Amino acid sequence: MLVVWGNTLLPSHLCTVSGTTSPSDLGDTASSLTVLQLPCLACFIILRSTPSFNRSEREMNAQLRREQDLAYEASLAEDRAKVAAREAQQRSAALVAEQLAKDAKRKEDLKKAHINRKRIWQSRLPPPPKFEEGSTVQLSFKMPRGSRVSRVFNLNDSIKLLYYFVLSQDDSPTEFEVQSNFPKRIIPCQPFEESDVEDYIDTPDNKMDCDEPEVITDWSRKCQNDPPSFFDIDLTRPEMLFVLNKDA
């Protein structure tokens, strides 16, 4: 411990007084100590002014500053890490919210697209032809929920008309197949171009409700990608076909 003596710091063991002391005694004691400790005081002052003492003191001060700087940098780095972690968490939460919003919008768009597709093909289908033996066939369909519908088809028409007839029913599934039981087989009636329901999503470049769809009267096979005719696939006799929900 150091105490102040004038303008000089002294070690406390050089000037310690213990016990009860009166002011006059304290003055005498101080005078006596001054005389007695002058040699020590002189040595201490000389020691403190030496280059080695100053260098040691500077090194201690420098070490203290380094430790303080390191502690400050560590605290600053910890604060920065906390801020970075919080910002990363906020970005992640924002991305999750954005993706959820996109998924919800896409789900809603697809739902509307299925409704648009059904509405459009309900308007495009021609009325059924009059039944004539040898040139037409009447087919019945059992829907997944148990309801039944039937229609007369021209044997020379492509069976894609069958697909759109099923699709246009109010209780038809979004994705379906048509199956016959005698023989048991899947009827390949889905047109190649009808593979993407996204074509029916209402966009600024693809408005679904601008004009009333025109009725299609020619359902003959136009190209190799078109499904075959009723005659070619041997759907020429009245029978019950089953509509299967592919999403079930």
Describe this structure in words.
The chain has 248 residues and is α+β, with helices and mostly antiparallel strands. The chain has one domain (25-248): Roll (Ubiquitin-like (UB roll)), CATH 3.10.20.90. It contains three helices and seven strands. It has a five-stranded mixed beta sheet with strand order 4-3-7-5-6, covered by helices on one side. Strands 1-2 form a two-stranded antiparallel ribbon. A hairpin with a 5-residue loop joins strand 3 and strand 4 (148-154). The protein is rod-shaped, with a radius of gyration of 49 Å. Mean pLDDT is 84; it is low at 1-10. It holds the Pfam family UBX. GO terms for molecular function: ubiquitin binding. InterPro entries: Ubiquitin-like_domsf, UBX_dom, UBX_domain-protein. One of its GO terms (biological process) is ERAD pathway.
